[in-house]
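Dear colleague,

Thank you for sharing your sequence with our group. We've completed the structure prediction you requested, and as agreed, I am returning the results in plain text so they can be pasted directly into your records. Please verify that the sequence below matches your submission; if there's any discrepancy, let me know and we will rerun it promptly.
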Amino acid sequence: MRLAAGLLGLTLLALPAAAQTGRHYDSAGRTVGRTEGSTSQRHYDAAGRLVGRSESRGDTTRRYDSSGRLQGRSEQRGDTVRHYDSSGRSVGRTEWRGDTARIYDSSGRSQGRIERSGDGWRRYDAQGRLVGRGTGTPPAQ
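Please find the predicted C-alpha cells below.
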C-alpha cells in the first residue's frame, strides 16, 4: 500500500491490484461484472432477469416459469427448487441445505415460515423473528 500527499491536504491511497475492487454495468444499469480480487460476471435474459453468474467459486444458473417467477437455481453446492400455490404465492423451497415452507392464513396473509435442516427445524413469524425451534416434526399450526 502506498500513501501520497495530494492537493488541498487530501491523501491518495494506492492499493495493490489484488485489493482493488470495481463494478461493470450494462446499458440498462445492471451489474454485469465485478472485480474484487477475483472476477465475476452476471448474465441476463431478454426480459432483464438474472439468469446466471460466473465466478471463481463456480457458476450459478437460474430458471423462470412462464409467469416470470423464479423456479430454481443450480450451483456448485446443489440445486434449489421454488414452489408456488395456485394463487402464485411462494409456499416453499427445497434446497441443498434444507427445506423451507411458507405459512399463510385463510385470508392469504403471510404468517411466517418453517425451515428444516437435518433433523431440526426453526419457525419464524411474518416479520422474520425466530419464534420456535426443535427436532423431529414441527408442531401443526
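Summary note from our side: The chain has a mean pLDDT of 84.

Kind regards,
the structure core
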